């Protein structure tokens, strides 16, 4: 967001430098963003208003606006046929389950108020992709929506479940950031894997990371990422699949680290937010299963 503002300031200075006071700039209402990009309310807009805006003061932008995104990335708009299925699924898996466990007041306090929806992935120069970003607890950008297919949608096959789980992994990850930026996790967390974090995390597989006491390769990038990756993967896997993951790790020290992290996450949710993590975990995975099985 900061670099977007810098870009706009530079652009404004360029305009002032190249125009004279008496120059006719024409009808500025035809410039996108200054009145020339209006459109009629659609059924999608009505659904967003009734389902998200009225009850939670949340909105979602699906009409294309490159100014909301990284100017250096090649991105594509979302397929509008995917908008309601995506947002409806997000509400069922994420919003509704947090409301059931923590109450509507909790969710309205922490929920980002603005979602920006993007059809394609956001590729990085190191070959990785960004699936989502959170900006100051206010906005979440979600990518790869055009690959979204759930049970009952045309063309759905079981392998599509990977994309569904990744989307919720992304949302739970970004919401985890909002939670710890509101109330920080215990400092003891950073001592568990101290010295093991690396900027070269993308050179490892998840399986390699597991043997080092991390829930994923990306969790190795920093303590904050480790914390929210642990939250998001525990929630989206569910307890049985999480235990299956742990059972396959061959290094006892790595298992010990993951169990310590698991305990901190569970206690953080209980002590800070009065949330029963095990119950939330069961609800979250059950809701995902309803979409993919």
Can you give me a brief rundown of this structure?
This protein has 293 residues and is an alpha/beta fold. Helices cover 52% and strands 6% of the residues. The protein has a 4-stranded mixed beta sheet with strand order 1-2-6-5. Strands 3-4 form a two-stranded antiparallel ribbon.
The main sheet comes to:
4 strands, mixed
Runs in which pLDDT lies below 50 for 5 or more consecutive residues are 1-19, 28-32
* Total count of strands: 6
Going across the biggest sheet, name each strand in turn.
Answer: 1-2-6-5
The CATH topology of the largest domain:
Collagenase (Catalytic Domain)
**What is the total number of structural domains?**
2
The coarse silhouette is globular
* Beta-strand residue fraction: 5-15%
- Per CATH, which architecture of the largest domain? 3-Layer(aba) Sandwich
Which structural class fits the helix and strand makeup?
A: alpha/beta
Write down the overall mean pLDDT: 85
Radius of gyration: 21 Å
Q: Helical percent range?
A: 40-55%
Tell me the name of the CATH class of the largest domain.
Answer: Alpha Beta
Order of helices and strands: HHEHHEEEEEHHHHHH
Question: Helix count?
Answer: 10
Distance between the termini: 38 Å
Protein name: Substrate import-associated zinc metallohydrolase lipoprotein
Pfam family, one: Peptidase_Mx1
InterPro entries: LP_HExxH_w_TonB
């Amino acid at each position: 967001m900061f670099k977007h503002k810098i870009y706009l300031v530079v652009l404004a200075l360029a305009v002032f430098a190249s125009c004279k006071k008496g120059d006719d700039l024409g009808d500025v209402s035809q410039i996108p963003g200054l009145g020339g990009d209006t459109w009629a309310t659609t059924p999608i807009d009505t659904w967003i208003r009734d389902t998200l805006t009225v009850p939670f003061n949340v909105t979602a932008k699906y009409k294309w606006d490159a100014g909301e995104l990284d100017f250096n990335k090649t991105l594509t708009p979302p397929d509008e046929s995917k908008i309601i299925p995506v947002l409806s699924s997000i509400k069922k898996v994420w919003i509704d389950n947090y409301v059931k466990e923590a109450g509507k007041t909790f969710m309205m306090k922490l929920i980002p108020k603005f979602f920006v929806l993007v059809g394609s992935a956001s590729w990085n120069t190191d070959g990785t992709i960004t699936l989502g970003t959170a900006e100051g607890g206010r906005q979440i950008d979600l990518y790869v929506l055009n690959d979204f297919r759930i049970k009952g949608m045309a063309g759905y096959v079981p392998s599509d479940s990977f994309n569904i789980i990744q989307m919720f992994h992304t949302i739970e990850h970004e919401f985890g950031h909002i939670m710890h930026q509101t109330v920080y996790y215990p400092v003891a967390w950073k001592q568990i894997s101290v010295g093991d974090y690396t900027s070269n995390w993308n050179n490892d597989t998840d399986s390699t990371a597991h043997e080092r006491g991390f829930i994923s390769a990306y969790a190795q990038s920093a303590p904050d990422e480790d914390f929210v990756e642990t939250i998001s993967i525990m929630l989206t896997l569910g307890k049985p699949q999480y235990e299956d993951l742990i059972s396959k790790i061959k290094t006892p020290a790595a298992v010990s680290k993951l169990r310590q992290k698991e305990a901190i996450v569970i206690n953080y949710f209980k002590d800070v937010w009065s949330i029963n993590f095990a119950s939330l975990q069961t609800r979250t995975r059950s809701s995902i299963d309803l979409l993919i099985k």
